[in-house]
Amino acid sequence: MKQIFKHIRSAMEGFISSLNRDPVRYGGYAAILTVGMALLLVLVNILVQQIDLKFDLTEEKLFSLSEESLNFLKGLDEDITVIALYEEGKAPRVVQEVLTLYEKASPRIHVEYMDLEKNPQLVTEYEKEGERLQQGSIIVKGEGAYRIISSYDLYDINYNSPQGPEITGFSAEKRITAAIHAVTTGASPVVYELVGHREERLSRYAMNDFLERENLTSKELNLLQEGEVPEDAAVVLILAPKQDLTPGEADLLDAYLAEGGRLFVAADVRAGELPVLNDLLSRYGARFDYGFVIEQDRERHTGNPYQVVPNVEYHDITKTITQNKEAIVLQWTQAVKEEEIKRRNVSVTPLLTSSDRSFLRKDLEREDIQRGEGDIPGPHTLAAAIEERLDDRGEKKTRIVLVGAGTLLETLYPFNAQIPGNLDFFMGGVLWCIERKDMLSIPSKSLLNLPLSLTATQVLVYSVVVVAVIPLAFFITGTIIWLRRRHL
């Protein structure tokens, strides 16, 4: 019996002695630390599940509402019901998330999910001529009006892609907030499109539906026939005219602007110089500088020096674009030149600018892209906002937006799509002209990726970092750890 106890005691002493060895002690510490970290992670996970806390880490903030929407929703003074027509459990997660954000943003908003097949009475109640209800539609209902958002309107879709229809953006917030605005105000400002000079039409770019979703109405305006700008004009749009104004038309527009009118002009360099239009604009402090800008900074073009990716200056027009870091692409753009002499109450603010490596090509017959004689070095203003205060308190004012690219709304190669940033700039400019504080310019969440342009130096640096520096850092770290453990 004594021998047995002796062996047991000896084994215990050996075990205790082994625990005092460095490798075992360190291993024990590591095991305790691992178990402790696992328990901590479990505890943190349980606590997080109890807290309604989420972070939107998507680059385009797909699961967040913009500041414009949040501010607008805080001011709602009537109840809004949002009915999402989906089969039970079939609503896309991203749509559910957005609708949940609306409910949280305002106690006035109530969201319901209904299956259209199980509730056919909705067709009788809400369907009207020109609009059909279908699964995936969203009904926004106020106290006296409603709007229907089709499932297709929740996304920006490019139908011109060679591979077939392509989703380029998620626009649920834009559509829903605009619908809420429409049913609570009932107002629909009128955008008059000037015609008679071979201008491009908004309908060519599928923009009429776009304006309607933003609670705007578009109409034609032929000044030679009308003899004046209609009183209900919120803004006059001149989009890529191919012929100049007549002096009489310029005088009519001048009379309209002098009384606080609003004008948006996108000029097309391919139309040649437009002296009458430029003379009108010069009276308000700026004009188009004929020629097209060639960008030689590789970070400021798409790979095509004639497609400028301009610097976006912060302004009410560009606020959402800068906040969302959207890209704008201007193809064959003229410069906008501020006049040295202008009226005291006139301010000209650059919105889009080229780099100091760009230049304005004046001789359009030249085909090379190198700066030569007669070219004007940059940077150049490519779009500008003009404002003239007409009274001491600034309550009455004239507003004009000038864009040097008549291709602003075009489908551009190689993207085979309209550029979302261009569309948002256009809408931001129109809404700034209108000066409706309750109107909102909310961008779509862009899903379109512009090509990454890198200089040769940047390519070399990134290659060295990825191929050499990072692997070498791992090798050195691993070697140090191995050497330390070897001597434990």
Task: Provide structural commentary.
- This protein is an alpha+beta fold.
- It has four domains: 2-50; 60-186, 3-Layer(aba) Sandwich (Glutaredoxin); 189-446, Rossmann fold (3-Layer(aba) Sandwich), CATH 3.40.50; 454-488.
- The protein has helices at 2-19, 22-50, 67-74, 93-105, 121-126, 172-185, 207-213, 223-226, 247-258, 275-282, 319-323, 420-434, 456-486; strands at residues 80-85, 109-114, 138-141, 146-149, 155-158, 166-170, 190-194, 217-221, 233-239, 262-266, 286-289, 292-294, 307-308, 311-312, 330-331, 335-338, 346-353, 359-361, 376-377, 381-389, 397-403, 411-412, 417-418, 445-446.
- The strands form seven sheets. An eight-stranded mixed beta sheet has the order 8-7-9-10-21-20-17-14.
- Strand 3 (138-141) and strand 4 (146-149) form a beta hairpin.
- The mean pLDDT is 84.
- Pfam families: ABC_transp_aux (PF09822), DUF7088 (PF23357).
- The chain crosses the membrane at residues 26-48, 459-483.
- This is ABC-type uncharacterized transport system.
- Residues 59-144 form the DUF7088 domain.
- It comes from Winmispira thermophila (strain ATCC 700085 / DSM 6578 / Z-1203).
Structure described in brief:
This protein has 488 residues and is of the alpha+beta class. The chain has 13 helices and 24 strands.
